[in-house]
Amino acid sequence: MRLELVEPHQLEFTAGQYISVAIGLPAQAGGGDPASAGQVRRAYSIVSNPATNHAVDLLVDIEPAGKGSTYMKNLKPGDAVEFMAPLGIFTVAAEPKLLFVATGSGIAPFKSMLFDLLADKKDTREMWLLWGLRKVEEMFWEEKWRQINKYYANFHYRLMISKPPGMWPLVSGHVVKELNDVVLNQDWGVYLCGNQEMIAEVEQMVQNKGVLTTRIHKEKYA
């Protein structure tokens, strides 16, 4: 989903930051006091890179009973959306090598980070992206990652499907399985975004491989 900026017309942010969207604003239906309408907020990582400062692209995970999902799904072109931005400190530091591990929609901040680093800044550090999904039907952006994996020699991408179909030809299992292919040490910065179980398991594994605690950065998604 893309939100074109009106006021202000531009937004300066750092890849990895997020916005906080006001959900249930009566203004969308003709005005009123947001507080009296039971306004709540939902956080969405910005998936566009900072060079696109006239708009913000979001990855919206639609959940049937979610307030945020229902609100975002029902938006129509031209509807006004109020949000606070930029927020968060989950951004890339100056580590010599970079490992990104995501599950599900936790991939969102990494799209902004990696396209900013590779396409805009021409960063030559070694980078790995490990992404875990449950089912093939949940796949998206796959072609984007395959393309930059071919184009940038310093970027390495692995997709893991934990519940693949019977004839699945590629590697299957949990995303942590792919960590065996990455030779980690104290030079690496590790970025984790996804479910709590993955974050806890990977955090312990990379520490055992020599990654410094100060170089492990994490953001939990449901």
Describe the structure.
With 222 residues, the chain is an alpha/beta fold. It has two domains: 2-87, Elongation Factor Tu (Ef-tu), domain 3; 97-220, Rossmann fold (3-Layer(aba) Sandwich). 20% of the residues lie in helices and 25% in strands. It is built from four helices and ten strands. It has helices spanning 67-74, 108-120, 142-151, 196-208, and strands at 2-4, 18-23, 40-45, 55-57, 83-87, 97-103, 127-133, 155-161, 188-194, 216-220. The strands form three sheets. Strands 8-7-6-9-10 form a five-stranded parallel β-sheet, with helices on both faces. Strands 3-2-5 form a three-stranded antiparallel β-sheet. The longest helix has 13 residues, at 108-120. The radius of gyration is 18 Å and the shape is globular.
Please sum up the structure shown.
This protein is an alpha/beta fold and 222 residues long. It is built from four helices and ten strands. Residues 1-93 form the FAD-binding FR-type domain.
